[in-house]
Specification:
By secondary structure, this protein is mostly helical. About 60% of the residues lie in helices and about 0% in strands. Helix 2 (about 35-50) packs antiparallel against helix 4.
């Protein structure tokens, strides 16, 4: 999840002013936190609150339907409760309306917001089937189009595979066989790739940026250099890279300085949760 936040912040200043090289300053005064980080943290809060009830909601080591129902309910609750505090953070029009309506319903979206926010669920899954179901649960409340669900699944599965130490070759083969054609290089698309807010034209590029990277920082730089919807693309890449690589302490410290007190407290709660509870699941 930290990787998604870092990618979001580093890419924020380039969303509408793409820079297609890797030699940029990672953080400047022009960087800022967008909806990508905020909604990711909202879902992290929902995951944590749901898992607190895991002892009564897990049967024979499997999440029961009540667990998924509660996760869906709390995802809506915290995305609205917390999300309403940040009305100017960059929400898309339909998602903005969803945040502020009293009876929110999914709206058949296949926007890349489905993939940028999904990272927390990968940390509580025990197998690929759970990754898919958890992903669908937190995604379908808004992005219930098949391409929206697909983009979130592919991202969450990459994060999960990184966490269980799959190789990049294994990850590429899996995604290519089950989700997207990854038969391209970043160099081949960099000069022609244009702004796109869909999962199907953001997630493959973000995954490829990770696969071509040599370190966490390099992954963020490659992702930003692709252009397009820079903050979201880099957030997706960062969410995978953060699970695969070690995030340098100086980069973590600088990125967290952009969070306000509410967001920082959720992040710190998540870090404690991750350290104390993930191994129990």
């Amino acid at each position: 999840m930290l990787g998604a936040i870092i990618g979001d912040i580093a890419g924020s200043r380039f969303e509408f002013d793409n820079y297609r090289k890797k030699d940029f300053e990672l953080f400047t005064d022009n960087c800022f936190v967008t909806d990508d980080s905020i909604i990711t943290l909202c879902l992290a809060k929902a995951v944590m609150e749901t898992v607190k009830t895991r002892k009564v909601n897990i049967i024979n080591g499997v999440y029961d339907e009540h667990f998924y129902s509660l996760l869906e309910e709390l995802s809506v609750k915290y995305m609205q409760k917390i999300g309403r505090n940040y009305p100017s953070c960059g929400y898309g029009g339909r998602f903005f309306n969803w945040i502020f309506t009293n009876n929110p319903k999914p709206y058949n979206s296949y926007g890349n917001g489905a993939a940028m926010r999904v990272s927390p669920v990968a940390y509580i899954a025990r197998n690929e089937d759970e990754v898919v179901k958890l992903s669908d649960t937190v995604t379908g409340i808004t992005h219930n189009h098949k391409e929206g669900l697909k983009g979130a699944q592919a991202t969450a599965l990459c994060i999960y595979m990184a966490l269980i130490r799959k190789t990049k070759d294994q990850m590429q083969k899996f995604i290519s066989s089950n989700y997207y054609n990854l038969n391209f290089t970043i160099d081949e698309i960099r000069n022609t790739y244009s702004f796109n807010e869909t999962c199907q034209d953001t997630v493959p590029q973000a995954i490829k940026a990770f696969l071509e990277s040599e370190s966490f920082e390099d992954a963020i730089r490659v992702a930003v250099s692709v252009g397009g919807d820079s903050d979201t693309l880099a957030a997706i890449t960062g969410s995978i890279a953060g699970a695969f690589y070690t995030v340098p302490a100086d980069i973590e410290k600088k990125a967290l300085s952009y969070l306000d007190s509410e967001m920082f407290l959720i992040y710190k709660e998540w870090e404690e949760f991750r350290k104390q509870h993930i191994q129990e699941i």
